[in-house]
Amino acid sequence: MSDVFPGSSEMAARMRAFDWSTSPLGTPDSWSEGLRTAVRICLTSRFPMILWWGDELRFLYNDAYLPLLGSKHPALDKPGSSVWSEIWHIIGPMLDGVLATGEATWSDDLLLPMNRHGYWEETYWTYSYSPLHDDAGAVVGVFTAVSDTTERVVGARRMAALQDLGAQAGAATVEDACRRIADWADRHGQDVPYVSVHLGDISDERWPLAEVLRDGAPVVVTAVEGLPSGGWATPPTEAMVLPLRSDAGDRPLGTVVLAASGGRALDEGYRAFLRLVADQIAGLVNGAMAYQAQQRRAEELAALDRSKTVFFSNISHEFRTPLTLIAGPLRELREQAPPDVDEQLSMIERNAMRLGKLVNALLDFSRIEAGRVQAQYEPVDLALVTTELASVFRAAMEKAGLALTVDCPPLGRPVRVDRDMYEKVVLNLLSNAFKFTLDGTVTVSLRADGEHAVLSVRDTGVGIPEAEMSRLFERFHRIEQPRARSTEGSGIGLALVRELVRLHGGDISAESVDGEGTAFTVRIPFGEGDPSEPIPDHRSASMPYVEEALRWLPPDVPSGGPFDQGPGYVLVADDNADMRDYLGRLLGERHTVRTVGDGDHALELIRTDPPDLLISDVMMPRLDGISLVRVLRADPRLARIPVLLLSARAGQEAAAEGLRAGADDYLVKPFAAGELLARVNTHVRLGRVRRQGEERFRTMADVAPALIWASDRTGLRVLANRGWSEFTGDQGLGEQWQDALHPDDRDRYLETFEQANRDGAPFDIEYRLRRADGAYHWMLEHAVPIGGGVEFGGHVASCVDVNERYREGERQRLLAQVGTALDTASGVRQRLDRLIGVLIDSQLADGCTVARTTGSGRLVTMAQAGAPVDPATVDEPTVVGDNEMALPLRARGETLAVLTMCRTAQESPYDDRDLALAEQIADRAGIALDNALLLAEEQAAARRLALVQQATADFSAATSPQLVAETVATHGRTLFLDHEFVLFEQRDAHRLEPLVVPGQQYGLDRLDLREHSPVADAVTSLAPLWLDQVDDWRGEYPDFVDRARSIGFRSGAVIPLTANGTCIGVLALGSRREFPLDAGDKRAALALAEQCGQALDRARLYQAEHEIAETLQRSLLPARLPRLDRLALAARYLAGAAFSQAGGDWYDVLPLDEDRVALIVGDVVGQGPRAAAAMGQLRSTLAAYLLEGHPPASALARLDEFAARIPDALASTVVCAVVDTAAAELRWARAGHLPPLIIMDGHGEFLSGAHGPVLGLGAGMEFTEEQCSLSPRASIVLYTDGLVERRDADLDEDLERLAATAADLPPEELAVWLVDHLLTDEGPSDDVALVVARLVPAPLHRTLPARADQLAVARQDVTAWAKAAGLPRPLIDDLLLVIGEATANSVEHAYRDRPAGDFTYELRCTSGGGVSGVVTDGGHWRPVPADNGTRGRGLAMIKAASVLSEVHGSETGTRVEFTLRPAVAAVETPGYGQVHGQ
Questions:
Q1: Rounded to two decimals, what is the model's pTM?
Q2: Fold category of 1340-1460 in CATH
Q3: Residue 518 and residue 507: Cα distance in Å, rounded?
Q4: Which tens digit of pLDDT belongs to each residue from 607-622?
Q5: Which CATH number fits domain 569-595+603-691: 3.40.50.720, 3.40.1180.10, 3.40.50.2300, 3.40.50.12780?
Q6: Locate the Response regulatory domain: which residues (predicted)?
Q7: What is the four-CA torsion angle of 277, 278, 282, 285, rounded to 10 degrees?
Q8: Less CB within 10 Å around the terminal CB: N or C of the chain?
Q9: CATH homologous superfamily, domain 375-552
Q10: Are 933 and 895 in contact (CB under 8 A)?
Q11: Interval 1320-1365: pLDDT, tens
């Protein structure tokens, strides 16, 4: 029963074991062929399929359907209504409809609620119902291909639900978020029928909320009752309680209960979906909570901002009262004070004015923010006001070396402004331009622009960084700009300016390029009115701005008198001129004091004349106080200078920052004069004591016989004695001394030193230090800390030169390492590599080369590593120059190689001790190298023998010269890793042809033996030529050497290949290195060449035999195909792959009578001339039987008897097909041959009937014959197995590939198509015979009277003929167009001036699938005029639609000939079949 129930599947086994006698379907042998075929298709398919058969629609299914059945399996032979009773009301009517109408139906993603796993399940299906017929043609069953699409449908729905839930974001409150979640749940009850959100520690006895909240892990709850169904028939029975994560990262903010649909199991996929839902809900709740928190924070910030504004307004008013009481009495005192007192009172008054300016700015800003500004707008001449305000700054600009340009022409109309506000805008902008412009120009311009007055203040100052532009007008934001005249400022100037401009209904903008300058542009609307008079005096309002600007200018020279006024020299750095004057007067009575206005000038003075004490302000332009301290502490020469920092920033954090930077003391402004004097005196005295102690220590260190250094607590070298500088040639301070450390010791030393510095601990270390002459010496260093714990102040250390002791220890250690390295390696290269590695690792050398001298005197490198060094040839150990040594490696009185080593320029030069050590190493290395060479020679001989034996075996299988070339190239590369092998074949006495192997990277040319070359000499002498170095042969073979070097070869050999004393080729080998072959290599190369020559001789003989057999075989095939009206033909014979024996594949096309044609393809077993001869006998004999009138089966039976008498024809196969073109029938018979392929209506099908045995068995077996009808334009394909069979593939698969490849094409194109797509570019591995025939419809010939009513008759006649011929619709349309135009011309023009006659049309199908036709008449057409108007278009249309069209006219008649192209384009491919014809 395996033919009915094929395969090893479970259902096939069940069907074979089932007792079908108990089934209404009956036993399988009684089944109709339709049912048997349907069952076979079902069981062999991997797609889920069902067969419903009989009145009860009995259930048959395959293995792929088992998962869809679930617990209903097994259901074999059960009525369909009992298998799917729960959905029968849906699918039953559909099945009945198919049985009743015989028409198929289908459904996509149909919902079918099923009970196949113990519960009602939501499922979706895509399936089709197709009718099944019995042998009588009645519909008795339904075939169903079904696909379970539940996962896809449910997954898409869940994804849409998640997207909808994500779209609910943006809730303003938690309540709103929960409301949106509830609305979402109502829309998606199919997947989440119940949602309950619990925020905080809420308990509900139905759900384990506390457990989930505590553990943070979801819990599944089963046996749930009383929940909404979500639209399904059954309510949920399972739910999940999940935690709602908190964005704060701590415990969950609550829980959510999500019920699972009653129609789906709560599997892992469903749980993952619910987890995503919980995450989305948590995100919505978190977002709402975050929004509420943000709103509360915004309200708090607004309230805080209002409180701050009220505070600033109140405090500013409070400041103004004491400022008034300070400024008034000061003015009175100055009028009565002497000059020396007036100077101090002037300083107090200036700073009171500055403080008043800041208070006024704060008050204005607070009024603006509080909305209590009372502006007094009035029309003014803004050009005059602006010019006056700008001119106030002219003196300060000129003193600072700046050019002030004021370009404010009259605007022609007044501008309504508040004078006080406008003054503050202009003065603030000018003050900023002055402050940040160190050189160049400040330009003030005013222009009218429409209804606005535009003020521009442009400077060429330091500019503003691009990153700061967005915060330029932000209140209290100060841009850190070190390149300014002062760092003072409150950060509200530009913010106030913007607010004042806005109060005028205008706007302000800024443009700046960092390092080039800044431009501020103010736009104010004009307003209306006449300018008021007079213009007030602006000097009182501008004085605070100008006075402050003047104090930013540095003094012409650093202040300070002679340097003999006190016991100490104090340098003061402060950008405030008043503070500089005050400190100079305060300290000048006891000390010499000099003052500067910024850190850069201070640093310049310190480097030229270091002070006893530096007093510096923290906030200064260019280089601030903190940065100045860091620079001093980083410079060993200046690191000991005491520094006292002054700052207006109070608090421990500010003081700590200064002290961390390295300051000795920190004083906060304002300070008491006595406190400052006390601290200055103390630091001056301590600094002098410190310097005296350092001088005494330095003197003692300089006379010590060791290298001594000292560092501070940061690790910076602050002292090095004379011994250090004399040894290294460097002062040894700062970090420069690190350059003298050996590169290999640097990291180790610094790590040890830094660790000791962090711990405040002593350390000892050995390291290499570079001497002044460049040589590195080993040093032993001992360092101890200065102080301990919090009192740690650095290290002091002494270093001793221990180079001699270290070298001896290293020598003994190196000799031991060399011995170990040589003893543990066996090969030559391994021993040399390890030797070189030890020498480089030990730093005895930076680079090594081991080279040997060949018999020809050439140096060959054996091993090399490290820095490049040229090999040397010496007989004795020799120092070459300062940094190179050469040592012969000897054994048994013979020099085996020379070891050359070198040092780089950074290392010390070689000396006699290095040479003595190297001699000991060379002695040991020579003995080790000798042992390795002996072992290597033995191993190489054994390896060569094995490789030559393997090559001999592979050469025996090489049946072509090309295979011989590939074999020698493969084994040559294996035998000689550094050489490439090329085989040249001698085709005649004067030339050698290269046999190129795939993968060769260089081009090979034909060699002319008449040219002078080593190849020609080797061929002439029949002796090998060894080219140890190609360049040595330049004098004798210059062209050859140039060619060899151009493709990269440096050495090689040429070996002639001989057979029977004659040269048949040359084996050339070459290396891209200078690699001379030794005696063993040459013996191996000659042995390989000998085997190669024998193989090449055999391949040439085999090739000649193959060509003879192929020529014989082709001579026995038809010279050309017959030309037949009703049958288009194409044929191919393709010999097997080159140099395989020609086979016995053959074909024949034999016309039997007027209507019948025989198509024959055969295959004779065997190869070579004997097979070709047998093929010729079989072809002639079968042709004779067919011409005698025997049908195909009878002819093959008689051919079988004949073949039994021909030994070489035994087991041959033949297929014979006879095409009756008149009856459109095909009769065929086969003798063991593959079935013919017939192509009808665009589909290919094998003719599998008409079986028969192979020829010559003599068993008396019967040959059967089959016949079939042919549709118009049907094609028949006969072929041999070489076309379809592939190695290691099933024949059925090969035939399926042929059927799938076949196409509805004309014979010639189809032959090309099949060969191209079934064979590789290399051609077939076996012979191929192929015959393609296509039925051509009978031609149409008709003569009709030349009347207009006959044109419709002709059109109907042509249409009927074209449809009967099976022409495609586009070709029919073209044909009707052309025949209509041609016949219409005959009717209209042929007989206009003579008696009416007839017209004739003749149509026939071409072999290429097109149509050719002729239309003739007996009349004479009127010539077409030059301006034809509407005439002559018919001939143009005929020409456009045709491939070829001609019109022949004479007095006796007109003849129109045309050819229409086929509707299917011909195949044009560059493949194998296009090139190889019949």
A1: 0.35
A2: Heat Shock Protein 90 (3.30.565)
A3: 17
A4: 888 888 999 988 887 7
A5: 3.40.50.2300
A6: 569-684
A7: 70
A8: N
A9: Histidine kinase-like ATPase, C-terminal domain (3.30.565.10)
A10: no
A11: 655 666 788 899 998 888 888 989 998 888 888 888 988 888 887 7
